[in-house]
Amino acid sequence: SNLMAAQMTNAHRRFLQVLMSNGITEGSEARKLHQHCCETDKVYYAHDKLDDFISTINSHLQPLFMQIRKGISEDDGRAHYAVVNLAETEVTKMASDYTEIELELFRKTMDLIILSENGFASSTDILNLADQLKTKKMKKKEAEQVLKVFVEDKWLSEKNGEYTLHTRCIIEMEQYILSNYQDVARKCNICHSLAIQSQVCESCGIGMHLPCVRKYFRGQTEPRCPKCNEFWSCDTP
């Protein structure tokens, strides 16, 4: 295919290596890295061509069932990039890094977060699960340590004792979450990526990320749902 005809240069390889070792890279960092890789490799650099640069890498990753994916931080709406292995689900990918009991705690935490109203689970609720695990019971101290590791490894984010899914987790596990939580998982009506922390229309049930809500309703005196046009009853951030 002519996509494959676009040569994978050393600049592309270097960019991919850094992305893989970072786990997840914020948009402005990815743009700096793009420039740095092109200049180091003395290849043509255009500041608005990052997406094309990534498409070239993705065309070469395709036969390996891998892809660089772009996602949005639910916190501030910024773009992030992560390398996703399409051949593995979240669980197989994590299985090489964590024990069975740690994975069970993660899955249970994920349930709490995704089934919650606001996309968060309190540490109290998560720690209460620790002694109900099927694999074996986990002491609270031990569970606290495991949660800490999940935060360090960028699967979870924590703010004031409340946990949610990290942007990396959302990018890498989007398919897994959409197929395993079909009844509750929804995509944002504005940016079309998975929305965990979101506001939901009381009339038609569509969801929107908080940063997307903020952008969409900016300057509107009476916010109305982009889909059904009913009054948006949530407090807009």
Automatic annotation (TrEMBL):
Q: What is its EC number?
A: 2.3.2.27
What Gene3D superfamilies does the record point to?
3.90.1150.220, Winged helix-like DNA-binding domain superfamily/Winged helix DNA-binding domain (1.10.10.10), Zinc/RING finger domain, C3HC4 (zinc finger) (3.30.40.10)
What are the protein's GO molecular function terms? ubiquitin protein ligase activity; zinc ion binding
> Which reactions is this enzyme annotated as catalysing?
S-ubiquitinyl-[E2 ubiquitin-conjugating enzyme]-L-cysteine + [acceptor protein]-L-lysine = [E2 ubiquitin-conjugating enzyme]-L-cysteine + N(6)-ubiquitinyl-[acceptor protein]-L-lysine
Which Pfam family, an example, fits this chain? SMC_Nse1
Where in this chain does the record put each RING-type domain? 188-229
- Which superkingdom heads the taxonomic lineage of this protein's source? Eukaryota
Where can this protein be found?
Chromosome, Telomere; Nucleus
UniProt keywords (A-Z) are:
Chromosome, DNA damage, DNA recombination, DNA repair, Metal-binding, Nucleus, Telomere, Transferase, Ubl conjugation pathway, Zinc, Zinc-finger
GO cellular component terms, A-Z: chromosome, telomeric region; nucleus; Smc5-Smc6 complex
Gene Ontology biological-process annotations: double-strand break repair via homologous recombination
| Role noted for this protein | RING-type zinc finger-containing E3 ubiquitin ligase that assembles with melanoma antigen protein (MAGE) to catalyze the direct transfer of ubiquitin from E2 ubiquitin-conjugating enzyme to a specific substrate. Involved in maintenance of genome integrity, DNA damage response and DNA repair.
Family assignment?
Belongs to the NSE1 family.
Q: How does it assemble?
A: Component of the Smc5-Smc6 complex.
Q: What is this protein called?
A: Non-structural maintenance of chromosomes element 1 homolog
Organism this protein belongs to: Pheucticus melanocephalus
Upper lineage: Eukaryota, Metazoa, Chordata, Craniata, Vertebrata
Originating gene: Nsmce1
